[in-house]
Amino acid sequence: MSVTGGCQCGAVRYRAESLGRASICHCRMCQKAFGSFFGPLVAARGLVWTRGEPARFASSNKVERGFCAGCGTPLTYDYGGDAVEVAIGTLDEPGRAAPVIQLNPADKLPFYDTLHALPWREANPSSEAFLSSVASNQHPDHDTNRWPPEALK
Ligand SMILES: [Zn+2]
């Protein structure tokens, strides 16, 4: 079953034949590239670009990282191996890529192990009002024939 995904603005979309190993990488380079606590990546076999293409940055002599030049979404990690890896959050169905391994524990952030135990913010009238007033400009989680729609131009 093929998988699809893309960046938040919709300028770059991809399709892959299947997914391979999913991982989270704690290395400092992934933290910086994703602007996050770790890099969530999954091997994408048979990856093709169905709309646009990512810009690329050689984050080292070994790896090129692809991202949308229009909206900045991190998209790919390419180390020249069998399959380019894609950022799990860019999949239309990220729940299909459950990580099975963690990489580079030496750079793991000190608070990472306790994140799951953080308290949840209580729902309140102002947060609910804010959420209900949000009108997303992000591309939807499926392919579209035309993008952006007229309303966003
Ligand atoms: Zn984009």
Describe the structure.
The chain has 153 residues and is mostly beta strands. It has a single domain, classed as Metal Binding Protein, Guanine Nucleotide Exchange Factor, Chain A (Beta Complex), CATH 2.170.150.70. It has 2 helices and 10 strands, in the order E-E-E-H-E-E-E-E-E-E-E-H. The protein has helices at 28-34, 125-132, and strands at 3-6, 13-16, 18-25, 39-45, 48-51, 55-58, 64-67, 74-78, 85-87, 101-103. It starts with a strand and ends in a 21-residue tail after the last helix. The structure holds zinc ion. Residues 7-9, 11-12, 68, 70-71, 73 line the site of zinc ion.
TL;DR?
By secondary structure, the protein is mainly β. The chain contains two helices and ten strands, in the order βββαβββββββα.
Radius of gyration (CA) equals 17 Å
User: Which structural class should the secondary elements be placed in?
Assistant: mainly beta
Identify the CATH class.
Mainly Beta
Helix content: under 10%
Return the average pLDDT rounded to an integer: 95
Amino- and carboxy-terminal Cα gap: 33 Å
Q: Bound small molecules, which ones? A: zinc ion
The tally of structural domains comes to 1
The SSE string, one letter per element, is EEEHEEEEEEEH
Number of strands: 10
In the CATH hierarchy, the third-tier topology is known as Metal Binding Protein, Guanine Nucleotide Exchange Factor, Chain A
